[in-house]
Amino acid sequence: MIKLSITPIYYISIILPFVSVIVCWIFYYSMHNKYDGRIKTISETVLYFPETRIFGVGLSIESVFVFVLILIRNTVASDLSVKKNIRFPTLQLFMKIGLIAIPLGIFSLCTITLLDNAPIHLTGAFFFFIGSIIYFTISDYVLRKLGMNISLLSFSVSWLALGFAILYMTLMSMQKFLSAGAIFQYITSLLIFVKLFLFQYDIPNHNVQITKNNKE
């Protein structure tokens, strides 16, 4: 039996999007930025080459890691639910939907820009931001009810992300506060990836086990 550590995936899941966005900003603000007196959202800074390619590749890889991390979390919740005979059918259904919707949202928003197709891009952003936050709050509740010790930090990050997401969406709807809305978008994004990193501390130590069958 071979045991593979999952820990590197948690670190990549927080480092990769951060590095991708920073590199995109470097190119955008040095090559394409036309100052109009406001701070731009992430989506507005990845409209052109090479930013669009960097963002697309980086976040596409991230979507795979997010899928893996959510799958692990869902599997732990499912196993505990069976072991303790405690069922949350509706909530666990939402968790299963999140397994597909969140990575798909990341993939859509990073591969299809606002210039390519704004409705698809914004739909992907919705599934990423709102889908992630709904998933966080529901999975925190389910795991707590199943006996997992969700730390105060991890629990707080879920609700902080919700609060900043509401502020972000509210301010972005008002012309005078677009810069503030963009800042809150950055904070919301950071909190989402911090929460993904904290997933590892919400459940027991885990790894991937590969069993080799010896055929005689």
Outline the secondary-structure elements:
Layout (H helix, E strand, L loop, with lengths): L1 E4 L1 H26 L18 H34 L4 H23 L2 H32 L6 H21 L5 H25 L4 E4 L6
Antiparallel strand pairs: 1-2
Describe it for me?
The protein is mainly alpha-helical. The protein has one domain (14-29, 38-201). Helix content is 75%, strand content 4%. It contains six helices and two strands, in the order E-H-H-H-H-H-H-E. A two-stranded antiparallel ribbon has the order 1-2. The longest helix is centred in the N-terminal third of the chain and has 34 residues, at 51-84. It is elongated and about 60 Å long. The two termini are 17 Å apart.
Beta strands, count: 2
Gyration radius, rounded: 19 Å
Sequence stretches where pLDDT stays below 50 over 5 or more residues: none
Total helical segments:
6
Shape: elongated
The amount of helix comes to over 70%
